[in-house]
Amino acid sequence: MPIEQEQMILPIVAYGHPVLRQVAEDITADYPNLQQLLADMWETMYNSNGVGLAAPQINRSIRVFVVDSKQIIDNLEPDEKNDYPGDEGVRQVFINAHIATLDGDDWPYNEGCLSIPKIREDVLRPETVTLSWVNENFEPQTASFTGITARVILHEYDHLDGKLFIDHIKPLKRKLLKGKLDDISKGKIRVDYRMLFPK
């Protein structure tokens, strides 16, 4: 019987690291130690109080991300849940995800990112995303997601295309953030999880 390996908490790549700007590659079912990698990604995400984590954020340029939007939905007040009809939240692995369609009106929500700590900004994203992917057993999936779950998925999906949430904000606002972003890339920031800063 295989020995169950312990999950590892991996360092999260900080803003300024080149891997965050690469377009990630699809993987095949024989990708080395994939199940261990997924277990480590869940462990790392929960350890840093995240609701999603993409492989580029742990220095792997592959099209893999994990999402647990149930945490957000389950913690909403009953009247807040009415703002997101049809969104029950998901806890899911997405491998080789590709967007089929984006639907609905763009709506704002205050986003943050584990790779860009202590910065939050309102970002406009579509209400609904339909995508195809394979799960951890490499079974093909296609589904539509809405509300907060769609947003978390789109945020993580951006990482696979070398994009960050700050790319969606107005140039002037980004200019105002330059000092904070420079501090992150130089490691001049304290967070309560492990980070990998650019060399």
From TrEMBL:
CDD domains: Pep_deformylase (cd00487). It is an enzyme of class 3 (hydrolase). It catalyses: N-terminal N-formyl-L-methionyl-[peptide] + H2O = N-terminal L-methionyl-[peptide] + formate. The keyword Iron applies. The active site is at residue 156. The keyword Repeat does not apply. One of its GO terms (molecular function) is peptide deformylase activity. Its EC number is 3.5.1.88. It holds the Pfam family Pep_deformylase. GO terms for biological process: translation. Keywords: Hydrolase, Iron, Metal-binding, Protein biosynthesis. Its cofactor is Fe(2+). Fe cation binds at residues 113, 155, 159. Belongs to the polypeptide deformylase family. Removes the formyl group from the N-terminal Met of newly synthesized proteins. Requires at least a dipeptide for an efficient rate of reaction. N-terminal L-methionine is a prerequisite for activity but the enzyme has broad specificity at other positions. This is Peptide deformylase. It comes from Flavihumibacter petaseus NBRC 106054.
